[in-house]
Every structure is written in structure tokens, then in C-alpha cells.
Specification:
- It holds the Pfam family TetR_N.
- The chain contains nine helices and no strands.
- It folds into two domains: 54 residues, Homeodomain-like (Arc Repressor Mutant, subunit A, Orthogonal Bundle); 121 residues, no CATH class.
- The protein is mainly α.
- The longest helix is centred in the middle third of the chain and has 25 residues.
Length: 202
């Protein structure tokens, strides 16, 4: 008789179920069943309902997990500060793109058309996350502050805005920008070094 598996701690069980749920929901949307999620997590379906009383609770938790900035901020913190400016920003942009794409994917799979709004506190929390995210990018730009003609916060803001629009499947018309393209536009613009803009005032 084989020994019984050691029961998972509640937090570990929750993380295991969510980790199994996300790819299934991205693939099948709300049609993903709790039985499929339980099988992918390696637990009984009843275990899913002990952690999440309803499927709606599970879907809400999947959305919350996608919006949680902890993993994203940790990834940004791991970007090598010793890299030259351009590859450093390319690495950071890839991290930001990954976060946006996961959020877009989960929202699309759940049929959410716009930013989820639940309460004033949620709105304030979302604003705080955006500020923390922007500050994390600012800190990656700051070592080269003297190279810019605008404050580093403006550089970080432009990088984030272009990454958002360039990664969104609808805004980019399904032709998303690469991290390299986004950084090149922010750092170098689109004119050749010797080009001048035409004088249209005449």
C-alpha cells in the first residue's frame, strides 16, 4: 500500500488550482469546467470547491491573480542594471509586455470588455499599482538620466504607454510592436539622424 500524499497547505492548494486554471481559461474561456481545472491541478473537484465556493469565485480569483503586480514587479527588479541603456530597456519592456498580454488574455477569456471596476477601493488600489509599476521603470532609466532631454519619469511614461498600445491586440490591429521597436521609438524616434522635418508654415 502506497503512502498517502502529504496534504497541501491552504495557500499552496490555492496557488496550485489557480496555476492550473489560468491556461485552461485562456484557452477555453468560461467554458473551462471545474472538473477540467481540478484534473489539471491534480486535485479532486471537491477540493476546488472547498477553496473557491463557486465557479464565479474561481474566475474572480483568476482575474485578481492576473492583476496582482507582485510577480511582475519582482521580474522588473531582476532586470540587469549593468546592461547598457537600450538592452536594459528592451528587457524591461518584455516584462511589461508579458504583464499586459496576460491581463488582456484573461480579460478577453472572461468576456470583460473594459477595466474591471468593483469598488472605490479597487480603483485606488489599481492607481497605486500603476504608480508602483511606473516607478519601477523609472528606476531602470535613472542611471542614464543625463542622456535625456526630458525627465526620466516622462521617458518611463512614454515607454509604458507605447508598450500598452503596442501590445494590445485590438489597438495594434493584431500587429503588436516588438520590445525592440518600442524602445527604438522612445529612444530614437522615427526620423533618420540626418532628416529634418518639412517647414509647413510657408
Amino acid at each position: 500500500m502506497s503512502p498517502r500524499a502529504t496534504p497541501m497547505a491552504p495557500d499552496e492548494r490555492r496557488r496550485t488550482i489557480l496555476a492550473a486554471a489560468v491556461p485552461l481559461i485562456l484557452e477555453r474561456g468560461q467554458a473551462a469546467t471545474t472538473r477540467q481545472i481540478a484534473e489539471a491541478a491534480g486535485v479532486a473537484e471537491g477540493t476546488v470547491f472547498r477553496v473557491f465556493p463557486t465557479k464565479e469565485d474561481l474566475l474572480d480569483a483568476v482575474l485578481d491573480a492576473a492583476l496582482d503586480p507582485a510577480h511582475f514587479l519582482a521580474e522588473l527588479a531582476r532586470v540587469d542594471r549593468s546592461l547598457p541603456l537600450e538592452p536594459r530597456l528592451v528587457a524591461a519592456t518584455r516584462v511589461v509586455q508579458g504583464r499586459f498580454r496576460e491581463i488582456f488574455g484573461v480579460m478577453t477569456a472572461l468576456g470583460i470588455q473594459g477595466p474591471p471596476r468593483r469598488s472605490r477601493q479597487d480603483d485606488e488600489d489599481a492607481l497605486a499599482v500603476r504608480r508602483r509599476s511606473l516607478q519601477a521603470v523609472v528606476e531602470l532609466v535613472e542611471p542614464d538620466a543625463d542622456a535625456f532631454r526630458v525627465p526620466v519619469r516622462e521617458v518611463a511614461r512614454m515607454l509604458r504607454l507605447l508598450t500598452f498600445s503596442g501590445s494590445h491586440p485590438h489597438l495594434s490591429a493584431d500587429e503588436p510592436l516588438t520590445a525592440e521597436e518600442i524602445v527604438a521609438v522612445v529612444l530614437h524616434g522615427t526620423l533618420t539622424p540626418t532628416a529634418t522635418t518639412p517647414d509647413r508654415s510657408a
